[in-house]
Design a protein that fits this description.
There is one protein chain. With 87 residues, the protein is α+β, with helices and mostly antiparallel strands. Helices cover 44% and strands 30% of the residues.
């Protein structure tokens, strides 16, 4: 299994990942899961490597922004599940 390091940045609500060991592999995703899928797909298509381990290098400001958005989304889901009060 080959290991790659992916530098993750945020840009306009997208996570952008750049594989440090492979020039030319830069992709994006709306979520970190989608980004990982896209990076694996790019590596598979460009170098026919499917058995890879990815280590995400996420700067602290990106982590904070990600956590803030996740908490807001979870809070919104909880509010939408509450039954409406009877009039």
């Amino acid at each position: 299994m080959k290991q790659y390091h992916v530098m993750v940045e945020q840009d306009d609500g997208w996570f952008v990942g750049r594989v440090l060991e492979r020039d030319g592999v830069t992709t994006q995703g709306r979520t970190l899961d989608e980004l990982v899928f896209m990076v694996r797909d790019a590596i598979g298509l460009m170098w026919d490597e499917t058995d890879v381990h990815l280590e995400l290098l996420v700067p602290s400001e990106a982590k904070t922004s990600f956590e803030t958005r996740r908490r807001a989304r979870d809070s919104q889901r909880r509010r939408s599940r509450k039954p409406a009060k009877a009039a």
